[in-house]
Amino acid sequence: MIETKSTDTAGHRLALLALAIGAFGIGTSEFSSMGVLQLFARDLAIDIPHATEAITAYAIGVVAGAPLLTLAAARVNRRLLLILLMGILVAGNLLSSFADSLGLLVFGRFVSGLPQGAYFGAGAVVATYIVGPARAGKAFALVVSGMTVATIVGAPLGTLVGQHLGWRTSYAAFAAYNLLALVAMMLWLPKTAALDGNPILRELAGLRRWNVWAMMLVAALCVASTFAVYTFVGPFVTQVAGLSPGWVPVGLGLFGLGMAVGNPLGGRLADRYEFRGMVIGFGATLSVLCVMALFGSSPVVLMTTLFLVGASLMMAVPTIPVRMTEMAPEAPTLMGAMNMAAFNVANALGAAAGGLTIGAGLGLPSAIWAGFSLTGLGLIVFALSFARLRTPRTLAV
Predict the structure, then answer these.
(1) The whole model's pTM is what?
(2) CA distance 209 to 125
(3) 1: in domain
(4) 3-class secondary-structure state, position 396
(5) H or E segment and range at residue 363
(6) Does residue 5 form part of some domain?
(7) Average pLDDT, the chain
(8) Who's near 50: CB < 8 A, 6+ residues apart?
(9) CA distance 360 to 11
(10) Nearest to residue 109, comparing CAs of 99, 118, 100?
């Protein structure tokens, strides 16, 4: 069990800032890809459904990297691990910036995705060390805050850079920023043996719990709707609502603003209630998706519902890693990483489901209904698993 230190000092605030800066870089790299989807599809002479393979490759990288990198570095000090992971992200974005074919871009996005799960797992451990275990929901929200800001500022800015200077320039800029984040971590993250890793068998023990896998399945299904929408923001804005491409960054920014509003509320709900924040958040998401699918051709409705989808998502999300860590307290880093792996299974599911329905000729709004179905299925799985999920420490397989 990692010792905690919750005294509020300038050094601890800088450490939390460094974690948020790194998360901003990860979020910008991930979400900007949706904003430049149409750009690299046109440049590489491929259609939109095939272009989503680059989005899916990033998600697969996260899913593969979350357990593999976390377990491979089980004994590594969390500070050093975070620095190494940021170095991998620099390399992945550089590879993406040099891609001259879909295959190379897919590889670059896969490498970029590898560190994400382990980063948020280790980052949550460091943040909890700083703020104390009683505020684990707040700790997760603090780390994720960088990603929510990325959806407001980073992704729209990355999209603007791509529209005016080319999508390859966007990825090169991400790599440069990630390098600055790496330096911030070297300077500001605490050097302490309290952040040393755990034996690999101790981390692996967390994967023996049935309820951990059930929680990951619920997360993957429920969050998928967000990516079924976010992946196709560009086409929704330009083709469904009939706005100019200049409105795409606005749509991305409103989605991110919603995430920023919902994130701290979700953290408080996660600390205070067991599952209420998750149920309220995903239930609200279903309602918003219905409105978006039916009336999204109105620019006002589309922009409003993009904000609301982001807000409802982040009301729900912090509950998931907090409960997973309670289910397997012996493996906090791995639980944080597997949480992000579940979210990126959602990324792949949402993008693939939307791509399939659009490719089948059902129209762009069909992607929203595909996401609605996945979230609805996730809530059904949660309801069926609820009794077992409420007894987290007794369910080792």
Answers:
(1) 0.74
(2) 20
(3) no
(4) strand
(5) none
(6) no
(7) 87
(8) 41, 102
(9) 54
(10) 99
